[in-house]
């Protein structure tokens, strides 16, 4: 029987825990995961963290905080430090960190091979092939697009943003990149930028751009990245554009337009309307695993974790290698008090990354910090100090054996 849900720790207390848990992650293109937290955590691709523990269990949280702070004072996963040393940044490519030991850097047809690996669900290797394609042709906007989308699916939001921005510099009318960038901005707390990307999606869309021209008096949007809450008049203005576009379509459902509406409703906290929008998109694209994931995260943020689990599970049925959805499923399991299932999902995600790396003899990408941090939280909630220590040391093999999972 699932234990009753109790009051979550205060936001300030949780921010302290999460900041300490992720403090030792290597920075990638200026990444700083701790600063974007609000009461709705990491929106479209992350669930709200609610811990069903005793309200009076202050000793537990004090102990947890001490453990996180101690962990933050040392490099708890040696792999991450190694990965940091294995990547470099090229100033000419706007701060994107490329793997310097990419075995596919001279691969003929790297882009096509990357698409093949993406279809197979091998996200880490897809990233390496897309990086190789870009190094061979830095002006390949489509390669930047797929690199950005794959980085987001592989739980590396900041790298996704940099890649998608570069894509749009090369190809401003790339609608897929604009929508993906809006989602990534939302996840990182850049609400103003998310609104701007969504408005630009309308402006660049031949079907809807006339709507923007007819509303020249609508509030302008800033180009400077900011984590301050979006101005309500700006948000409502962009939302009005999307609603008018949907009205013009009549009974015809545009799944991309509905996805944008879902993001906008999510930004305004209208989770039920966001759920309706994503469900509408899914009637047209029932096999779109990214839509199922966004639906799941919206359900979770709307305090409907049981339904979120179903949506994440569907996403993983379609794309078993979707690491972000596996991570999100683990978070929803924590919300439901199913800690063992949460741990299993986090370990599966880490194992998928490692299997890909070992099979291809490629360096470990610096993308696992969020998953390791969530894993340690789940193990702490299970009161498994010996396994917590294994996670603290980054010993994946010990943990996989403990939970009877394949290495």
Automatic annotation (TrEMBL):
Record membrane topology: Peripheral membrane protein
Family of the protein in this entry: Belongs to the peroxisomal targeting signal receptor family.
Keywords: Cytoplasm, Membrane, Phosphoprotein, Repeat, Signal, TPR repeat
GO molecular function, one term: small GTPase binding
SUPFAM superfamilies: TPR-like
Predominant place of localization: cytoplasm
The organism's taxonomic lineage, starting at the top: Eukaryota, Metazoa, Chordata, Craniata, Vertebrata
Record Pfam families: TPR_16, TPR_6, TPR_8
GO biological process: protein import into peroxisome matrix, docking
Species the sequence originates in: Prolemur simus
PROSITE patterns xref list: TPR
CC annotations in GO: cytosol; peroxisomal membrane; receptor complex
Signal peptide positions (record): 1-23
Listed name of the protein: PEX5-related protein
Compartments where found: Cytoplasm; Membrane
SMART domains xrefs: TPR
Family annotation (InterPro entries): PEX5/PEX5L (IPR024111), TPR-like_helical_dom_sf (IPR011990), TPR_rpt (IPR019734)
Placement of TPR repeats on the sequence: 141-174, 255-288, 289-322
This protein's encoding gene: PEX5L
Function of the molecule: Accessory subunit of hyperpolarization-activated cyclic nucleotide-gated (HCN) channels, regulating their cell-surface expression and cyclic nucleotide dependence.
Coiled-coil intervals, chain numbering: none
């Amino acid at each position: 029987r699932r234990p009753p849900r109790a009051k979550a720790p205060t936001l300030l207390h949780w921010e302290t825990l999460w900041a300490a848990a992720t403090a030792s992650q290597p920075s990638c293109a200026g990444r700083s995961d701790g600063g974007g937290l609000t009461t709705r955590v990491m929106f479209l691709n992350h669930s709200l963290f609610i811990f069903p523990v005793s309200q009076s269990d202050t000793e537990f949280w004090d102990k947890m905080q001490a453990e996180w702070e101690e962990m933050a004072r040392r490099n708890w996963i040696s792999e991450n430090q190694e990965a940091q040393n294995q990547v470099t940044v090229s100033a000419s490519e706007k701060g994107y960190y490329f793997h310097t030991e990419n075995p596919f850097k001279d691969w003929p047809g790297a882009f096509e091979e990357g698409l093949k690996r993406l279809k197979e669900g091998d996200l880490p290797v897809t990233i390496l092939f897309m990086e190789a394609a870009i190094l061979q042709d830095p002006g390949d906007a489509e390669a930047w697009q797929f690199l950005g989308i794959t980085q987001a699916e592989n739980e590396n939001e900041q790298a996704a943003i940099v890649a998608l921005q570069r894509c749009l510099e090369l190809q401003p009318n790339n609608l897929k990149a604009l929508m993906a960038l809006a989602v990534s901005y939302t996840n990182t707390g850049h609400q103003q930028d998310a609104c701007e990307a969504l408005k630009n999606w309308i402006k660049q869309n031949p079907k809807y751009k006339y709507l923007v021209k007819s509303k020249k008096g609508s509030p302008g949007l800033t180009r400077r990245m900011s984590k301050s809450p979006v101005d309500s008049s700006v948000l409502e203005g962009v939302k009005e554009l999307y609603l008018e576009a949907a009205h013009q379509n009549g009974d015809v459902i545009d799944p991309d337009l509905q996805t944008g509406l879902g993001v906008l409703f999510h930004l305004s906290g209208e989770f039920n309307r966001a759920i309706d929008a994503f469900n509408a998109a899914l009637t047209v694209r029932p096999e779109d695993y990214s839509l199922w994931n966004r639906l799941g995260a919206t359900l979770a943020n709307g305090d409907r974790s049981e339904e979120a689990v179903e949506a994440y599970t569907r996403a993983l049925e379609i794309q078993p290698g979707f690491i972000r959805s596996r991570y999100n499923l683990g978070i929803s399991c924590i919300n439901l008090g199913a800690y063992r299932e949460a741990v299993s999902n986090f370990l599966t995600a880490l194992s998928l990354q490692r299997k890909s790396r070992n099979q291809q003899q490629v360096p470990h990408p610096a993308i696992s910090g969020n998953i390791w941090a969530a894993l340690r939280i789940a193990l702490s909630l299970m009161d498994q100090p010996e396994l917590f220590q294994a996670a603290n040391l980054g010993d994946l093999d010990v943990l996989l054996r403990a939970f009877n999972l394949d290495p």
